[in-house]
């Protein structure tokens, strides 16, 4: 009669499926010639909860370099924030633009 000691132990062949870490996305502020600096700073503070100092620095980076990374976060949050910021600018009649792109 077989006993529990007769159990044949085979090496585990199934590999645990590795969960992919979700990609992070950058929200990018794009410079333009029309949106006032103060308005850009206000939007950064309101939508991205930045301090006056950080907002000013990010605005100035975009103004000088053409673009600036505002924040890196999950895709849905990045897209929602970018849209909120663009909508605020649209309402005020400014062409201020934000884009999102996956991190390298
Ligand atoms: N270049 C704008 C100006 O001189 C200010 C500005 C800065 C606009 C950053 C957009 O992403 C921007 N009034």
From TrEMBL:
One GO biological process term: protein catabolic process
NCBIfam families: PRK13019.1-1, PRK13019.1-4
Family matches, as InterPro entries: ClpS, ClpS_core, Ribosomal_bL12_C/ClpS-like
One GO MF term attached to the UniProt entry: peptidase activity
Domain spans labelled Adaptor protein ClpS core: 21-99
HAMAP family in the record: ClpS (MF_00302)
Quaternary structure and interacting proteins, as annotated: Binds to the N-terminal domain of the chaperone ClpA.
Function: Involved in the modulation of the specificity of the ClpAP-mediated ATP-dependent protein degradation.
Family: Belongs to the ClpS family.
Alphabetical UniProt keywords: Hydrolase, Protease
Keyword Protease: yes
Pfam family, one: ClpS
UniProt feature coiled coil, ranges: none
Organism: Pseudorhizobium banfieldiae
UniProt name for this protein: ATP-dependent Clp protease adapter protein ClpS
């Amino acid at each position: 009669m077989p006993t529990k000691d007769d159990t044949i132990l085979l090496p585990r062949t199934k590999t645990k499926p590795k969960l992919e870490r979700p990609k992070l996305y950058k929200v990018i502020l794009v410079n333009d010639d029309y949106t006032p600096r103060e308005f850009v700073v206000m939007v950064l503070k309101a939508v991205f909860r930045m301090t006056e100092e950080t907002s000013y620095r990010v605005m100035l980076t975009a103004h000088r370099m053409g673009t600036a990374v505002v924040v890196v976060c999950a895709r849905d949050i990045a897209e929602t924030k970018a849209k909120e910021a663009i909508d605020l600018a649209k309402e005020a009649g400014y062409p201020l633009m934000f884009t999102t792109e996956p991190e390298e």
